[in-house]
Structure formats: structure tokens, C-alpha cells
Specification:
Helix content is about 5%, strand content about 45%. The chain is mainly beta and about 350 residues long.
Length: about 350
């Protein structure tokens, strides 16, 4: 006999009361289900559910799924992968686990109507969370832009360029719970993968459209203008930027590297608000695992620029500040933080459980 348990009731051919609080007769229950709040078009929202095993024995979890009762694509609601979903194939007596659900909207307005369902081994019970009813509204929040009074390193740079936090040419791929603050642009490619579980806040995806094309053109112009700046200092191949720290941006606003550059340790950039710090690197930039950059004096992230003649790689758990404007590809390894923007003019942007935000 298949039993069906809804939040607050157990169906055994007829409804029996089942307390909101965990009691043994309910087997496994949802504990204080969350609410999603409102959802703007072209955005995402995530909420986490907790289930608890109230029986004296370990219970098998047969499945976790989302029932679709609306007209949006089934893929618009997903169960986020571990660690936000730590419910495995069984749940010990008295234990609890979490299930995170992410809703992803497009420009289509309407109302989500989904139900999170968990199949439990005991008496083949299925427990349902309260229905997820979330309206998608036309209220897209503008992407983060530099603060009032901001002056770009390159005069005449269009303001829309500073709405783009990620720009890729071939692909943008993500693994893990990356959070991007601002727009994600891709052109001429069309493959953006890994969102979700990655999220975009205060921004939208522009995939091979006019907005993405305009951003790419502006980013190319920005790269060329950076490379036209006169060098304050010139360094040879494989120079370790960490050995130059602390860097006084007022005294050395443009640092040139004839070929590749490294960052193997900590780097401090000193600069007041309104000052600029530019790094012109002839070939690759490689930031080592755990290497951390910091700033002092109030210099803005968008006034720190990296013009990379080839590709840039940020190592695991490393931190970098500024705009990376690279001719080829940009890779952020696991847990790397970019307090800035990543613009790959002719290659891919690869992300892995990162934080990318120009305003930090």
C-alpha cells in the first residue's frame, strides 16, 4: 500500500492529522519550511528545507524530487547539489538533513507552483512540503555599477561596461556555488553552464545578443586603451608581483611586464579613492594557491586593471582585486575570489565555487 503524507497530514485512504512538529507517528517530517519571497525576472532565489527522522530506526530516502504544477520549464526549479543538499540515501534515527531548492526565472512573467517531495522507505511514505508559489515580477535590479563620482581609468568608457562582471567569448562554465554580482555576458558563443547551482545576483545573462556584443566591443577598446598607457615601471618575464609589495599606486600607476607575471604570495596595493593602478602583462598571469591581494587607502576595485596578453589563472582560495581584461581565457580555480570583473575577449571563463563581485 502506498501512503502519501502532505505537510500537516498523512493520507492512508483518508486523511489523518499529523502535527507540524516532529512526532514519531509522522516518521519523517519537514521542520519549519522556508519561504522564497519575491522573484524578479531573469534572477534566481534559493531556499533550504530541513527534514527530520522521528523514528527509532534509520529510514531510507528513496528519492527527492520537485513536482511541476506550472507552465514554466521543469528545469526552472532545481535541487542544489551538495553541500547545500546533504540528504543522502538514508537518514539516521533523530537526525536531520537539508535540501536546497533554487528557482530560476527568465523574462517570462507568471507564478511558480512547485512541490518538493521526498520518498521515505517506511510504509513507502511520500512527504510533501508546502507548495512553492512564487510570482515572477518585472522588477529586475540594475547590476552594480561604480559609486557616484567614479572616474574610469580610461576616459570615455561607456557606463554599461561596468555592468558586466563576467564576459566570455566561447563559453562560460561553472562548478559549485559560485556567486556572480552583475551581468554575465557571452558572445559569440552560446554555452553557459553551471547556473544553477551558480547564481547571478543584481544582474542578468546576456547570451549572444546586442547587449553582449556591445560589452565585448567596449571591453576590447578598454584593453587597447590600457596598453596605450605609458609604463611607470617595466619588469622582465616571470616577475613575482609579490616581491613588489607594497605597491604605491600614486607613484607607480602603470606596471608593465614584458612577458608572464606571477603572484605567489601576499600583495598590498596602496591608493586613495580616485587613484588608479594598472598592470600590463605581455603573456600570462598566474596567481598561486592561497595568494591574497588586499588594498588600502580607498582605491576602487574598478580602478585596478589587468590587461593580460594571453590567459589569467587564479589559484585555489586565492584573492585578486580589479578588472581582468584578458585576450584569451580566464580561470578561477576552486574557492578563488575576484573582487572585480573577468572579461575574456577570445576564450572561455571557467568558474569553480567562486565569488565575483566588483563591489566588495
Amino acid at each position: 500500500m502506498f501512503n502519501h503524507m502532505k505537510y500537516g497530514a498523512l493520507s492512508l485512504g483518508f486523511l489523518l492529522p499529523c502535527s507540524v512538529n516532529a512526532v514519531p507517528s509522522c516518521d519523517v517530517t519537514f521542520i519549519k519550511p522556508p519561504t522564497f519571497g519575491s522573484l524578479c525576472e531573469s534572477s534566481t532565489v534559493t531556499a533550504t528545507y530541513t527534514i527530520q527522522n522521528n523514528t527509532p530506526v534509520t529510514e531510507a530516502i528513496n528519492y527527492i524530487r520537485i513536482q511541476n504544477n506550472d507552465s514554466f520549464p521543469t528545469s526552472a526549479a532545481t535541487i542544489v547539489t551538495a553541500p547545500l543538499n546533504n540528504c543522502g540515501s538514508s537518514l539516521a534515527s533523530g537526525a536531520s538533513c537539508e535540501i536546497s531548492v533554487q528557482l530560476s526565472s527568465t523574462t517570462t512573467l507568471g507564478t511558480f507552483n512547485r512541490v518538493l517531495q521526498v520518498g521515505i522507505d517506511s510504509r513507502q511514505v511520500e512527504i510533501d512540503a508546502p507548495a512553492i508559489t512564487v510570482a515572477v515580477e518585472a522588477c529586475t535590479t540594475p547590476p552594480p555599477t561604480p559609486p557616484p563620482g567614479f572616474t574610469s581609468t580610461i576616459a570615455g568608457t561607456p557606463s554599461f561596461l561596468f555592468q558586466s562582471s563576467i564576459l566570455g567569448a566561447s563559453t562560460v562554465t561553472n562548478t559549485g556555488l559560485t556567486v556572480v554580482s552583475g551581468d554575465l555576458d557571452l558572445t559569440p558563443g552560446s554555452a553557459v553552464t553551471g547556473f544553477p547551482p551558480g547564481t547571478i545576483v543584481n544582474g542578468v545573462q546576456n547570451i549572444n545578443n546586442t547587449a553582449a556584443t556591445n560589452v565585448k566591443t567596449a571591453a576590447q577598446n578598454y584593453y587597447m586603451a590600457l596598453n596605450a598607457l605609458p609604463c611607470s615601471n617595466t619588469y622582465g618575464a616571470a616577475t613575482d608581483i609579490s616581491t613588489l609589495s607594497p605597491i604605491n599606486c600614486a607613484a607607480s600607476p602603470v606596471n608593465c611586464f614584458t612577458s608572464s607575471a606571477l603572484m605567489t604570495g601576499s600583495v598590498i596595493l596602496n591608493g586613495s579613492a580616485g587613484s588608479t593602478c594598472t598592470f600590463l602583462i605581455g603573456s600570462t598571469l598566474t596567481v598561486s594557491t592561497g595568494a591574497v591581494m588586499s588594498t588600502s587607502g580607498g582605491i576602487l576595485n574598478d580602478n585596478i586593471s589587468w590587461a593580460i596578453g594571453s590567459s589569467a589563472t587564479l589559484g585555489t582560495t586565492s584573492t585578486l582585486f580589479g578588472i581582468i581584461d584578458a585576450i584569451a581565457s580566464i580561470t578561477l580555480n576552486t574557492g578563488a575570489t575576484l573582487n572585480g570583473r573577468a572579461w575574456a575577449l577570445n576564450g572561455a571563463v571557467t568558474l569553480d565555487d567562486n565569488a565575483v563581485s566588483p563591489q566588495s
